[in-house]
Amino acid sequence: MLIAIGSRSVCQSDCSRTAYANVKKVININGEIDAALHYNDTLPLIGDARLTLLKLLTELRGFPSKSQGGPSAWLKACAGKKREWGAFKAERYSHPALYDDTWKKQALTQPAAIKIAADWAKPKDVIKFFDAGDVQANGFQVVEDESYGRTFTETGASYMGFAVSALLATSVGRGKFYALAFTGDGSFTMNPQVLIDGVQHGARGCILLLDNRRMAAISGLQVAQYNHEFATSDSVEVDYVAWAASVKGVLAMEGGSSEGELTAALDKAYAYDGLALIHVPVYYGADPLGGMGVFGRWNVGNWCQETQSLRHNIGL
Ligand SMILES: Cc1ncc(C[n+]2csc(CCOP(=O)(O)OP(=O)(O)O)c2C)c(N)n1
């Protein structure tokens, strides 16, 4: 049985309905009717997940435990998997920079850069926006919020440029707040007008531009499907710091290749009463320590038939 809580089961999660090969039944606790009915054989519990869970827990506490005197085998297996995942993440965070062939120097990995910035944001209650691509996929795995409403990403279409544009909300929303927009060089380039709008409307926030000189999410898909990447990078060098600084009122700087340099840049941006941009060269390459791994199956491209027949076999 699968218990899904608040999941929209899109893209990186389980849009193809093939992630849970052994699952026969689903309980889906969800605020959205469509998302709650994503799978077949579902008992949907629709409404605010927090309230539903509180009710369920109150009911469950009335039942005696099936595994008296210790955790059940299931709970032990879950704890083991969680420990494995913790070790997987720790290994990546302890190798924050790798040598990058394009930059010809050590560059922070995306997981490390996101982790450093997310940890920096937490005690300050800085709101995080995530753009599409590897930035978003890694963000899903790295961010560990303690409270609701601290991270936003556009999981419907994963529209590139959402995060940087969302910085405008810091000035036009009802309550003023500081925000950090995680974006890739591809996504930023699609929506740079926020530099001008942000200054015009008094936005207070920072664009953290993770530059791997390519649209890595698409390169990754190409390599996985065809063993070859095609036209998802170019040889044009762009000085993003100069670009942002060319807009009067924007504070622009390099973010370096270490935790110390990146947090110092974030501190500077935070102290600035306006819009800032931090440019961070990040690693792209085959080293598994450079990413958070790929999970699930897509039903696009030349995988489609295989995935679809698996989906029909599973029947979920
Ligand atoms: C408007 C729009 N066009 C195309 C896509 C498909 N798409 C998803 S991620 C991506 C590339 C993102 O590149 P970048 O912002 O540089 O991030 P990276 O994957 O390199 O971290 C593309 C083209 C999309 N999500 N939105």
Structural commentary:
This protein has 316 residues and is α/β, with parallel strands linked by helices. It has 2 domains: 2-85, no CATH class; 96-285, Rossmann fold, CATH 3.40.50. The chain is built from 13 helices and 11 strands. It is globular, with a radius of gyration of 21 Å. The structure holds thiamine diphosphate. The site of thiamine diphosphate has 18 residues, from helix 5, helix 8 and helix 10.
Give a nutshell description of this structure.
By secondary structure, the protein is α/β, with parallel strands linked by helices. It has 13 helices and eleven strands.
Any descriptors?
three-stranded parallel beta sheet; six-stranded parallel beta sheet; 13 helices; 2 domains; Rossmann fold; alpha/beta
Topology of helices and strands:
Elements (H helix, E strand, L loop, with lengths): L1 E4 L20 E5 L2 H4 L5 E5 L2 H13 L11 H21 L3 E4 L4 E4 L1 H15 L2 E4 L3 H9 L8 E3 L8 H5 L2 H4 L6 E6 H6 L3 H7 L4 E7 L4 H11 L13 H6 L4 E5 L4 H13 L3 E7 L22 H11 L2
Helix pairs in contact: 4-5, 4-12
Contiguous low-pLDDT stretches (5 residues minimum) are none
Spell out the CATH superfamily of the largest domain: Thiamin diphosphate (ThDP)-binding fold, Pyr/PP domains
Element pattern in H and E: EEHEHHEEHEHEHHEHHEHHEHEH
Biggest β-sheet strands, sense, barrel: 6 strands, parallel
Count of DSSP strands: 11
Q: Based on helices, strands and strand pairing, what is the structural class?
A: alpha/beta
